[in-house]
Amino acid sequence: MIVVEDVHKHFGGFHAVDGATLSIQAGSITGLIGPNGAGKTTLFNVIAGVLKPTSGRVTMAGDDITGLPPHELFHKGLLRTFQIAHEFSSMSCRENLMMVPGNQTGEKLWNTWFGRKRIAEEERALRAKADEVLEFLTISHLADQKAAEVSGGQKKLLELGRTMMVDAQIVFLDEVGAGVNRTLLNTIGDAIIRLNKERNYTFVVIEHDMDFIERLCDPVICMAEGKVLTEGSLAEIKANEQVIEAYLGTGLKNRKMVGADA
């Protein structure tokens, strides 16, 4: 579904992504791991159009999407979440979801005068869909609560819910577990698995929690110093000498530590 070919992203003399090449298969939940500074988030930002690559190519289903802005990729079904949730804090959780679909009738001044019936019908449909999403994510009890008042983990669920309000094909999740307690992280994991199996979502997940990666992801891609080191199951990744060196810098004698400290 996504093919990244020899992508570079430089910030002056710093090569944040340095010739990364990888592919994401449709219908997979792919993990992207690596030590801090490996270039994972920068690569996400390049694929998702937040940053333009210095060089290289990104394709989606065979179409060149290199450098396309996020709003164009959004309409192609490519979405991403961020390490820190970006909610409309003064709006309710339901309203946050209802804001997501683009080209709503009420966005045009003319329609607010002459298309009120159509606007009302559209809002009823959006409200029903938002309530369905909240129920799917087991946070329907938060529907009328302001997004600013919910926990960090619930905000991450709300971000995942936004992807369900449109026809998402592939979703990039950047450290979905950061600052989330274990119970809510399990709920997020359950939702990702269900969306993958029941609605055929493709996911790419950056995460430092190896238990979460092991539960959800196959394959796993490991990056270091802006490059892709290797790809395989998590067990294969943990046994790879290059990966151990990237994380620990001390070789095979500390192999048993990988997973606990990764």
Keywords:
BCA_ABC_TP_C, alpha/beta, P-loop_NTPase, 262 residues, Rossmann fold, ABC_AA/LPS_Transport, ATP binding, disordered C terminus, 37% helix, four-stranded antiparallel sheet, ATP hydrolysis activity
Examine the secondary-structure arrangement and name the CATH architecture of the largest domain: 3-Layer(aba) Sandwich
Unreliable sequence segments: 250-262
CATH class of the largest domain: Alpha Beta
Order of helices and strands: EEEHEEHEHHHHEHEHEEHH
% residues in beta strands = 15-25%
Quickly count the helices: 10
| Radius of gyration over all CA atoms, rounded | 20 Å
Structural class computed from helices and strand pairing: alpha/beta
Shape: globular
Major β-sheet strand ordering? 6-7-8-3-9-10
What is the strand tally? 10
Question: What's the structural domain tally?
Answer: 2
**What name goes with the CATH superfamily of the largest domain?**
P-loop containing nucleotide triphosphate hydrolases
Largest sheet: 6 strands, mixed
Topology:
Elements: E1 2-11, E2 14-24, E3 29-33, H1 40-47, E4 55-60, E5 63-64, H2 70-75, E6 78-80, H3 93-98, H4 109-114, H5 116-136, H6 152-164, E7 170-174, H7 182-199, E8 202-206, H8 210-216, E9 220-224, E10 227-232, H9 234-238, H10 241-248
Parallel strand pairs: 3-8, 3-9, 6-7, 7-8
Antiparallel strand pairs: 1-2, 1-4, 4-5, 9-10
Helix pairs in contact: 6-7
